[in-house]
Amino acid sequence: MENFTTTTCNSVRKDSLISEEDEISSRRFIPHFRDEKFFGHVVTELKSNPGPKYIKDAKIISHDNIILTCHSNCEILIWSDKEQSLKDAGLGYYYGSGCVLTVNHVIDYENCSIFVTFREYEFCMIYLAHIAKKNKDQDLAIIKLQGSLDPLQFKNIKNITNEIEIKDIYVFSLKPDGEYELKTGEIMQHHPSIKDMLKNELLISVAGINGDSGGPVCSNGNVVGLFRGASTSENGLEKYGRMVKIDKSFLKCD
Predict the structure, then answer these.
(1) Cis status, amide bond into 52, omega within 30 of 0
(2) Within a domain: residue 19?
(3) Which tops the pLDDT comparison, 18 or 135?
(4) Mean pLDDT of the 135-158 span
(5) Which end of the chain is less crowded, N or C, counting CB atoms within 10 A of the terminal residue's CB?
(6) Which of 175, 215, 139, 213 is CA-nearest to residue 25?
(7) Could you give the CA distance from residue 201 to residue 173 in angstroms, rounded to a whole number?
(8) Mean pLDDT, range 155-166, rounded to an integer
(9) Average pLDDT score, the chain
(10) Quick one: average pLDDT of 224-242?
(11) How many CB atoms lie within 10 A of CB 123?
(12) In a shared domain, residues 96 and 135
């Protein structure tokens, strides 16, 4: 029976050796910032005034009457306060009242600050955020945005549920050009060689790429889970995605 290796699909690995693939992946998350130097400037601005800030072509722009309506998917950026550099990145799902749902392993760092970005065509909006709630056993976390929520007027926030039968699914993946791509798939049967499955975890046919961790997994117009990572067989011929289901009671956040 084929053995499997499990990887979480964070954008930047948690050790100090960042591969070329990881570096390319991390660039998807900061196209409007151009480089870490300018991103560091935005970090300083947000820590003195939570914002949000609006970024276009590596400049902080005026934000009079700008609102976001398209989609509530977002990117999560982890900034090392000690190293003054981007530490990690992943995805999340904004579901209202300043709350963003993601997987715990994306935000599980010490001495780091958390930032959330939303994209709207030619610019992006960025918030400083803090951890409001997390559950390591279920690999779930909620982070809360700091600053005005008035610009967030999304028209298509999906219902989050674990009470429907899941069949066909679709997963949001962040492409190299920074745009979202929908990948369709289905729930797979548990593979006996994968030993480290969480109790709330399912295998899916969409394996995902670096940086997809925390993104919503949807079915029939509902968010039914979060993408967590992938498992690959030793011979490289089989690869599965992994998603965690969401207990609705976890969504309650003060």
Answers:
(1) yes
(2) no
(3) 135
(4) 91
(5) C
(6) 175
(7) 19
(8) 84
(9) 83
(10) 81
(11) 17
(12) yes
pLDDT of residue 116: 95
Residues 6 or more apart whose CB falls under 8 angstroms from that of 157 comprise: 72, 94, 95, 96
Per the listing, tokens 């599980």 go with 108
| Domains held by the chain: number | 2
Residue 10 located in a structural domain? no
Amino acid at 117: T
Task: Indicate if 50 and 128 belong to the same structural domain.
Answer: yes
List of residues 6+ apart from 36 with CB closer than 8 A: 30, 85, 86
pLDDT-based confidence at residue 49 (cuts at 50, 70, 90): confident
Q: Is the pLDDT of residue 42 over 90?
A: yes
Tell me the pLDDT band of 22, cut-offs 50, 70 and 90.
Answer: very low
Decide which of 110, 145, 180 is a domain's last residue.
145
Q: What is the CATH number of the domain that holds 109?
A: 2.40.10.10
Domain boundary among 80, 113, 145: 145
Let me know if 161 is exposed, middle or buried by CB neighbors in 10 A (0-12, 13-18, 19+): middle
Q: Are 121 and 55 in contact (CB under 8 A)?
A: no
Amino acid making up residue 100: V
Q: Are residues 98 and 36 in the same domain?
A: yes
Structural domain includes residue 218: yes
Range of the domain at 29: 24-145
* Better-predicted residue by pLDDT, 24 or 7: 7
Q: What is the pLDDT of residues 87-115, one digit of tens each?
A: 889 999 999 999 999 999 999 999 999 99
